Amino acid sequence: MFDERDRKYMERALSLASAAVGLASPNPTVGCVVVRDNEIVGEGWHEYARVEHAETAALRAAGFRAAGATVYLTLEPCSHHGRTPPCAEALIAGRVRRVVVPLIDPNPKVAGLGIEKLRAAGIQVDVGLGTEPAMELLESFACQVTTGRPLVVAKVGMSLDGRIAAPRDDDSWISSAEARDFGQSLRQKLDAILVGVGTVVADDPELTYRGGSRKSPALARVILDRHLRMPRGARVFTCSKAPILIFCAPDAPSERRSELENAGAEVVSLPAGDSGIDLPRVLDELSRRGMPGLLVEGGSSVHWSFLAAGLVDKFYFIAAPMVLGGAAVPAVGGAGYATVGEAPRFKIRRTFFVGPDVALEAYPSFSRSILSPWKSKG
User: Fold this and answer.
1) pLDDT tens across 64-106, in order?
2) CA distance 190 to 56
């Protein structure tokens, strides 16, 4: 069905989409290439702030040359009215001959309807080229539109024996500079970063995105702070104007709430869960605010809480070539599992080096991700 030219132009469409990572959320990241007579006559990609979808941008660039062209698109064109008219109708109006897409849109509002519209108009539609890289671009969006909650990506930088901090803090990094850069790339792709208040008290992090690529909107900072122990002078209040969202229990001190709100945070009280704040409700709140991707960076007890609740979709374990041993802080703390049989199982999708450190991209059996190795690919 697909030849080398098809692969070449789909790779170009995927490249365009990749360049817009961090700029399209909460919409999907999409790239589009219009080809006529083996020549690219129009290209486009989607950035949320620019409103225009990839297809309409590429068709506008192609002009009259779109007629009879083949369109390479990294996602099925939309078939419904949102902030823009349906892209399937734009392709029909442009009189294109053929459309190549990697996969059907996971959004239930589309889910094949765009392809049906094109085929009903006599346009050839071929599906299945570049599926895996397209799914990687859509991972957060797909989770949000199919489950109603954000994709939860956990990340921990640790020693070979699974420790994240020595008993005495000496301001030394466990993770390499390259591993820390990889962490910034995750912050760029996702919409919010979450830590527990213990991490804020111990490390006073900025929780900002500091990579070299563009990101919009700014990464939201989310802090679990059941009793509102958050220091008024924490750096999150002074280093950036990015949103700060603090989740606490209903019985948290009202005077502390006022202080933190005056400092620039939004404070939301939620019922207490088994191990602190009700985490499913936290995810619901983030979803309501249009955040389809959440990065959980700890600490130790927070990682345990998310795993114990079955709320992690993907976990990056980044191991530095060192051993701490002894009383060092574990990557995942909490109560732990009483037996091996109770422990969740993971499948490793990728293993790769980030500088001298090795990273495992692991999916638990309860992952909701479209990329989960636990899901049947048939």
Assistant:
1) 999 999 999 999 988 765 666 788 888 998 899 999 999 998 9
2) 25
pLDDT band at 51 (very low <50, low <70, confident <90, very high): low
Instruction: Give me 267's structure tokens.
Output: 């404070």
Length of the chain: 378
Handedness of CA 11, 13, 19, 25 (dihedral sign): negative
Edge to edge, what strands does the sheet with 266-269 contain?
266-269, 244-248, 220-224, 192-196, 293-296, 151-159, 314-320, 357-364, 346-354
Q: Which residues are catalytic?
A: 55
Radius of gyration of the chain (CA): 23
Of the candidates 364, 354, 360, the one whose C-alpha atom is nearest the C-alpha of residue 174 is: 354
DSSP state of 157: E
Q: How far is CA 323 from CA 40, 165, 181, in A?
A: 53, 11, 22
